[in-house]
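User: Show me a protein chain along with its predicted structure.
Assistant: Here is one chain, sequence first, then structure tokens.
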Amino acid sequence: MREILFSLWLPLLLHNSHFFHSNSQKTLLLSVLFFFVTWTKNKNMKSSSSSSSFLQLHNNYNKKERCLNMGILPPFFVSSLLVTVIFILFILYSTNPLKAMSKHGLEQRLDSIKPPNTTTTTSSQGDDFDEIMTCDLFKGHWIPDLKGSQYTNSSCTTIPTSKNCFHHGRKDTDFLNWRWKPDQCHLPRFDPRAFLEFVRGKKLGFVGDSVARNHMESLLCLLSKVETPKDQYKDSEDRKRIWYFPGHDFTLMILWTKFLVDGEERVVNGSSSGVFDLHLNKIDKGWSRDLPGLDYVIISDAHWFFRPIYLHDNTGVVGCVYCNTPNVTDYGVGFALKMAFRSALHHINRCKKCKVRVTLVRTFSPAHFEDGTWNTGGRCNRTSPLSEEEINLSGNEWELRSLQMEEIEKAKRVGEKRGNRFGVLDVTRAMLMRADGHPGEFWGNKWMKGYNDCVHWCLPGPIDIWNDFLMAVLRREAALVSW
């Protein structure tokens, strides 16, 4: 039976010559097999010649002979041992079982196991960068990501209490397990070490309201994984903050401003009225005085424009927002926001003392109040993202985003003539889907109990993706100009 099995197995094995890398391997295997077949044949001959006397001899065995016969190996054991030896020799001599396969064949094999119509996530950094240069990073969807956040509310000590949602009792964590996937490419995860090397010796400033600060706080948490920053400056109102990373000589700051342009609240009988006067021809010095020292600027604003405002130019009042004043045209929030951005970007473009390498506009970050507004019981208690079919790309949020995009395009055209770079962090579409990422009731404001925060974002949370965008866009803009 063994001869039949080996007569079938041996030609098949030898026919598949790609298993062997040299003739010596074939020779060795043939020698071992020849020994095994010869041994088996001799064993069978001895067994047949002694079969007639086997019973008599067996009956005459004494105890000593039985003990000695225990040393004789059973044929099955010997067969197994020889087969094992054969394969051990085969493995030792087979240094590369794929060597005989052509490169084309290997690529075909790998392609056959790739999922269809997807972009591989194992691209090199160079491939990722090539994609970033041409891809629309901001058109995509959220996909599950079990890696979660790169930091926690315990590992990052600079999270402000109002954004520390878990500290204030939020229990669900699924909102951390999603990642933005552009339709046409792969968006690399934020790399804090690479980012700090990119901005070594530079200064980066966020210009805007409390949502701009929210973004800066997210970036601070991510960078703190590599180096602990020094809290270098804080003004009396804790609105202007400067952090310094001595190991990389990098300065990060927030320059707080309500409107980008000069704005003053009217005071009536010694009390704040909630009505503002905006001078569209004057830039807020709260941020513009620090502009000449910055290398990178991320500018944003919007939420302060949703209140009664009177708009001024050199001639006086030219319009309003929510004013209901006779003979004064109400131009709406969009017009006021557009004019403020136009003035701010124009100021950056004509700043002769400035050394700004790249200016980025971060588009409108939507709020998600449901069942009311911020002061009428509105809440945001979702625990997972909305789908693209559930968001409204024709609402006020998208209109404000479009107006900002128009102004950044105008600034680009002017800046190209002067060597200034402008880009965009177009977060609006992605964040419209993230109604689950706000603090809601978990923000711990003891002066406004009963009110929900559906404007800012939990840390950690979906806002961290803004820094994936930031790193990708900064690299793209920097690559398009030589300094």
